[in-house]
Each structure stands twice: as C-alpha cells, then as structure tokens.
Amino acid sequence: MLQKGDYKTTVKEQPGSSAVVQGVSSDKFGIGYSGIGYATSGVRALPLAEKGTKFVEPTYENCLSGEYPIARFLLVYVNKKPARRSTS
User: Fold this and answer.
1) How high is the pLDDT of residue 24?
2) What is the 3-state secondary structure (H, E, C) of 6-69?
3) Close Cβ partners of 24 (under 8 Å, ≥ 6 residues apart)
C-alpha cells in the first residue's frame, strides 16, 4: 500500500493490533492498520480499492476470497509427527 514509500516520522507505532485499535478509537483523526478480528464499535473498517478498480467492503467473505486488497492468510505451523493425535 505504501508503493515502496516509507511511513512519515509522525506515525505512532504500536506494539500490536489491539493497541492500534485503541489508539485509533481515541483519536478523532486517527487511522491505523489492524486485523479485521480486532474491530470494535469505536472504529470503522474502510472499503478499499486498488487504483482503477471498485471499492471493496472489508467483510469476512471478501477477505477470504482475496477480493479485499490487503487481505492475507495467517498460517499456523504445528511441530508434531504426522497422523499422531494431540494430547491436549
């Protein structure tokens, strides 16, 4: 999204997604990037579009299909032997 640019020096970096949401919700002019699962009533997820395309709503379905421009999958790797049941 930055198109090889960099953040401005006035950007307030946060340690995690919930801190971003909390910061944005308490700043009238705040804007931030966080996972859609962290959305609260104090913030609003924005429809986005790549240049020359239609805006896409940030719904679960649009993220899953890849239609939302900045959606991505989160991969989890498990270190266990194949075909072995978990004990927890």
Assistant:
1) 92
2) CCCCCCCCCCCHHHHHHHHHCCCCCCCCCCHHHCCCCCCCCCECCCCCCCECCCHHHHHHCCCC
3) 30, 31, 32, 34, 42, 43
Tokens describing residue 88:
């927890």
Spatial CB neighbours of 70, under 8 Å, sequence gap ≥ 6: 1, 33, 48
Say if pTM beats, i.e. exceeds, 0.70: no
- Determine contact, residues 12/22, Cβ cutoff 8 Å: no
Q: Encode pLDDT of 14-71 as tens digits.
A: 999 999 999 999 999 999 988 888 888 989 999 999 889 999 999 999 999 999 998 8
CB 38 within 8 A of CB 21: yes
